Amino acid sequence: MSKSVAIIGTRGYPSYYGGFETLIRRLAPYLVEAGWDVAVYGRPGAVKTDDPLLDLRVSSLMTKGLETKSLSTLSYGLTSSLSAARRKPDVALIMNVANGYWLPLLRSRGIPTVVNVDGIEWERAKWGSNAKRVFRGGARLTAKYASELVCDSHEIKRRWQRDFGRDGAFIPYGGDTPDRLPVVEGLKSREYVLIVARFVPENTVPEFLEAARELSKKWNVVIVGSSGYGGELDLAAKKLSEESSRVQWLGHVSDDKKLFSLWQHAGAYFHGHSVGGTNPALVQAMACGAPTVARDTVYNREVLGGAGVFCKPTSASISQSMLGLMEDRGLQDQLSRQSIERAKSEYSWDDICANYDRSISKLVPVSEPVSDLR
Questions:
Q1: CB-based contact 107:142 (threshold 8 Å)
Q2: FRET pair for 238, CA 20 to 30 Å: which of 152, 196, 321, 358?
Q3: Residue 37: φ, ψ to 5°
């Protein structure tokens, strides 16, 4: 008898928006192979129905919601949870503590829940005070009502133990180690600086854009990312690219091969994320062998180990560290090798998917065989 799981809190399957979506592209087909009936809730227009890697055995269910920065997660989480409550899967896998508000609804229907708590959202600078209160409230309800928690880093796990008295399973994100890819047209291998980030202050984007002015005097600078909603940082990146022929702003890149090539051939990749746990972009950059300069945080040190250079969140420190790495080909090659080895040993997708399978399987009651009394 097959088991059923509903996956709530992503933009759908298959989608290429962010870390959760990358995880689900790998996890959903894995769970189908492991004997699960898998339904992934998503948002209309956010999935690639013509994706050649689409697994037709995964059910893709769309619900309605409000497409605004502050209400999209909550509104889609509510409509997805209402649908799941009607369908009654054996277990629900939920991404993001903002969906903690809907856990009592699922519990009332007897549906156990595994929640990936993501980062410490209520400390992110991109959210206003109301949004931070919403995330903090969602976290408290997650701590109270979730059957099991998944933490994507050891430090996030410690925070949940300290702040909410809840333990969780440590399951990070994975990365794909690609074959050698051609350099993106117009660039030369190891001769450009790269950033890949959503345009929010806590990803150290303003400081990098300032450093890019200095870096672009000597090296090409490639900027990947946007806010998704327009705004000051998008305008600043656009202005920078217009002022200097050495600066390219590519916006959001959904083509994995192009993104992997950019990481693979970068001379120095800057990773400025400060509030997450195990960041999916950092793991994938490591799997591609990107020589990395990272903002010095407990999360980035946990992921990179010794396979990176760490800097302060100032334009001067970023510029100095990036220039130092760009001018040291031996260090570039060393960090590239160490990153690939660490990604393979610590962040393999097969191990990660197997751990999710174990976490949700624990919550499915085992049916007792009916004895033959004849």
A1: no
A2: 321
A3: -85, 120
345 three-class SS:
helix
**Is 1 a residue whose pLDDT tops 80?**
no
Structure tokens at 216: 């672009």
Contact 168, 150 (CB under 8 A): yes
What's the pLDDT tens digit per position in 207-224? 999 999 999 999 999 999
Q: Considering Cα of 191, then 331, then 278, then 319, what sign does the dihedral take?
A: negative
Q: How far apart are CA 232 and CA 279, in angstroms?
A: 24
Q: Could you give the residue ranges of the DSSP H alpha helices within 266-314?
A: 280-287, 298-304
Strands (E), the chain: 3-8, 36-42, 59-62, 91-95, 113-116, 148-151, 169-170, 192-196, 220-224, 247-251, 268-271, 292-295, 309-311
3-class SS at 250? strand
Distance CA 107, CA 164 (A): 20
Cis peptide before 29 (omega within 30 of 0): no
> What is the average pLDDT across 95-104?
96
Rounded distance, CA 222 to CA 28, Å? 33
With H, G, I as helix, E, B as strand and everything else as coil, classify residue 93: strand
Place of tokens 């400390």: 123
pTM equals 0.87
DSSP string, 191-214: -EEEEE--S-GGGTHHHHHHHHHH
Sign of the CA dihedral with 238 first, then 244, 245, and 249 last? negative
pLDDT digits (tens, 9 = 90+) for 303-339: 999 999 999 999 999 999 999 999 999 999 999 999 9
Phi, psi of 294 (to 5 degrees): -120, 145
- Count the neighbouring beta carbons within 10 Å of the beta carbon of residue 128: 11
Read off the tokens for 358. Answer: 């174990």
Tokens linked to 130: 């109301």
